[in-house]
Amino acid sequence: MIVMGILNVTPDSFADGGRHNDFEAAVHRAHEMLAEGVDIIDIGGESTKPGAERVSEAEEFGRVIPVIKELAKSGVRISIDTMRASTAKAAIEAGAQIINDVSGGLADPGMLTTAAQLQAPYIAMHWRGHSKDMNSLAVYDDVVKDVISELQERISAALDAGITKDKLIIDPGLGFAKDAQHNWDIIDSIDQFVAMGYPVLIGASRKRFLGGDNPDEREAATIRLTKRLSTSGIWGVRVHSVKSHKDALKV
Ligand code: PMM
C-alpha cells in the first residue's frame, strides 16, 4: 500500500495549520518526508477545509509551481492537488506526475480533457460542491450506494474524455459533503469501493470525524484507521505523518 504525504502550501489548511506556507518550509518538509520513505508527495495550494473560500489561479500557481520545480529535482513522485485544469497542466509540466482532483472533474469543465491530453494518472474524488457549501450537501438516501453511483458517473465522464482505465484512481472523499457517520459508513463498506475495480485512495488523516478539537490529537486514530484499511485492498492512504504510517504498515 502506498503512503502519499500531504504537503499543503496554504496559510489556512485544516490539518497542518499552514505551518508549511512558504517555499523554504515546504521544501524542507518534503525532504523530511523523502527521508521517511514517502511514495508520493501530494502538493496543494488551495485549502478545501469546510467553509474555505477559493484562491485565485495566480495565487495557487505561485504557491505550488516553485515547490514542484524544486522537488522534481529529487526524482520523487509528485501529485498536484488541484481542481483547476490550468494548474494541473502547469504542475505536470513543472515535474508532477499525477493529478489529484478533489472535485472529480466537476469544478473545472476543462479538467478531464486536460488530464487525458497529459496522459497523467488521475485521482477522481467524490465531491458535491465547493467547501463553502459542502456541509449543506451532506444529504444521502444511502451514503454508500449514492457515493458509489456518483463516483461511477465521474468514472464514465473521465473515460468519455479520453482518460484511460489504467490511469484512473478513485477516492470516496472522506469529510467532503459527509458527516461523521457518513464517513464511518463508507469505511465500513470499503470493500464495495475496492470492488469497483480501480485503485482506491483514502484521505482520513486528522479529519474531524476522528474526534477531538485539535487535528494533532487525531494522529493515533489516523494510524489505527490506516492499519484497519491496510487489509482491505485499498491502493493507498493520503496522510500527514509519513514515518508513523510507514512504521505501522511495516508492523
Ligand atoms: N482531502 C483533502 C485534500 N485533498 N485529496 C484526496 N484525493 N482525498 C482526500 O481525502 C483529500 C484530498 C483535505 O484534507 P487536508 O486539508 O488535510 O489536506
Automatic annotation (TrEMBL):
List UniProt keywords, sorted A-Z. Answer: Folate biosynthesis, Magnesium, Metal-binding, Transferase
Q: Which reaction does it catalyse?
A: (7,8-dihydropterin-6-yl)methyl diphosphate + 4-aminobenzoate = 7,8-dihydropteroate + diphosphate
| EC number, as in UniProt | 2.5.1.15
Which Gene Ontology cellular component terms are annotated? cytosol
Q: Which InterPro entries match?
A: DHP_synth-like, DHP_synth_dom, Dihydropteroate_synth-like_sf, Pterin-binding_dom
- What cofactor(s) does the depicted protein rely on? Mg(2+)
Judged by the first EC level, this protein's enzyme class is transferase
Q: Which residues form the signal peptide?
A: none
CDD domains attached to this UniProt entry:
DHPS
All copies of the Pterin-binding domain together span 1-250
A biological process term (GO) from this entry: folic acid biosynthetic process
* GO molecular function list: dihydropteroate synthase activity; metal ion binding
Q: What pathway or pathways are given for this protein in its record?
A: Cofactor biosynthesis; tetrahydrofolate biosynthesis; 7,8-dihydrofolate from 2-amino-4-hydroxy-6-hydroxymethyl-7,8-dihydropteridine diphosphate and 4-aminobenzoate: step 1/2
List the Pfam families hit by this protein, alphabetically. Answer: Pterin_bind
What PANTHER family does its record include? Answer: FOLATE SYNTHESIS PROTEINS, FOLIC ACID SYNTHESIS PROTEIN FOL1
Protein name in the entry: dihydropteroate synthase
Protein source organism:
freshwater metagenome
What is the phylogenetic placement of the source species in the record? unclassified sequences, metagenomes, ecological metagenomes
